[in-house]
Amino acid sequence: MSSQDLDKLLGALREDTRGVEAPRHVEAALLTAFRTQARAPARHVWIPWAIAAAAMVAIVGGTGVWMLDQPVPAPPAVKLVVAGPAPAFATELPSKTLAVASRPGKRAARPRVAPPEPRAVPATAAATEVATDFMPLEDTVTLPPIESGHILRVQLPQSTMMRFGFPVNPDRMMEPVKADVVFGQDGIARAVRFVR
Amino acid sequence: MTDFSTVADVTLLRRMSAGDEEAFTALYRRRQGGIYRFALQMSGSETIAEDVTQEVFMLLIREKSAYDSARGSVQSFLYGVARNHVLRALERNRESRIDDAVEPCDPGGADVLANLTREEALGAVRQAVLALPTHYREVVVLCELQEMDYASAASALGCSVGTVRSRLHRARSLLTAKLRADPARCI
User: Fold this and answer.
1) List of chain A residues whose C-beta atoms are within 8 Å of the C-beta of residue B21
2) Structure confidence by residue, pLDDT tens digits, B120-138
């Protein structure tokens, strides 16, 4: 085989894949992440809050709630559930979850972080994951009900969790956290749940 | 919607860092195809390609100052990030079989035999590229399949132009030898 033959073969392969692009739902997921990030307050805004939180911790002599590695109180408004394999799609999103996962005063163990897995195996990985309930996105409540759609696993900055009332270590706000985003039949993100 | 077709990548990046969603969308649409194809041709996996594309642009969203213009173009930076994610994914999947390898499509059409022959030849080239050692594969994908110039490829790979040139020369020799072993391959 000559160099020209190889050029011809590589050229054919190049032409064969020329129009190949990432699936549309990748763009939708990224736009959701971009909007979330754009709405999140700038990091420096939270520095005074971090200082205040640290001072409060010192005063009450409690544990360092700012350390995400330590056990933290369960979020008051969201119930933690073990994520099942590939959740069946509900035709109606759950309304705001009000159940409290644990009794007052009792610390919930921090959900274990599942080891990194290829995206191809979310169903098996889900067995070791802990997830919140799905929480509707506030700017989608006026949209028509979901009739069909899909769930996409993405990574969002931890600062996103603050919008839903979760405590976040200010030093880790930019670190990623896994999330499942529900997209409706119109391609618009409707709800999100956080996964560890 | 603003027409961003003539706006430079670096300007789009600056505007998206300031919260301009249209600029982000324009930059994504301009660059996602190349990034996705690079990851697909490097890994042979649509799942990895999809994940890598998402991770590359998530980095732009998360780390607004990740790009340093002194170190090359935005395009080279994006390919460099994609390359790191691809290598990580390949490492993770080294011992696990990838089940979503790209399958040749049904040729159909009037000249079925010619299409089958073409698909077979393309499959052989694809497999030959995937069988190359990673550092040879990436120069073939960037320079031959993505038609990137040597300087940009060198910037994306973090090596010299001379290294790109010599790796490409060696990679082509390996490909020729592999495809020569099966002389029936022709387009």
Assistant:
1) 31, 34-35, 38
2) 888 889 999 999 999 999 9
Q: What is the pLDDT of residue A137?
A: 80
- b/e map of B136-172 (b: 16 or more CB within 10 Å)? bbbbbbbbbbbebebebbbbbbeeeeebbeebbeebb
Domain-wise residue ranges, chain A:
22-195
Give the residue on B whose Cα is nearest the Cα of A120: B47
Task: Give me the pLDDT at residue A98, please.
Answer: 31
Quote the distance between the C-alpha of residue A119 and its chain's center: 14
Q: Is 70 exceeded by the pLDDT of residue A77?
A: no
pLDDT at res. B40? 95
Q: Which residues of B touch A22 (CB under 8 A)?
A: 32-33, 35-36, 49-50, 53-54
Q: pTM for this one? A: 0.58
**pLDDT tens-digit series, residues A122-142:** 444 445 678 888 888 876 767
**Among B54, B93, B187, the residue to mutate for chain A (most A Cβ within 10 A):** B54
Decide: helix, strand or coil at residue B88.
helix
Domains and CATH numbers, chain B: 1-102 (1.10.1740.10), 109-182 (1.10.10.10)
Report strand pairing: A176-184 vs A149-157. antiparallel
Closest approach of A161 to chain B, Cα-based (Å): 15
Give A 67-106 residues with CB within 8 A of chain B: none
Chain A residues in contact with B63 by the CB 8 A cut-off are: 174
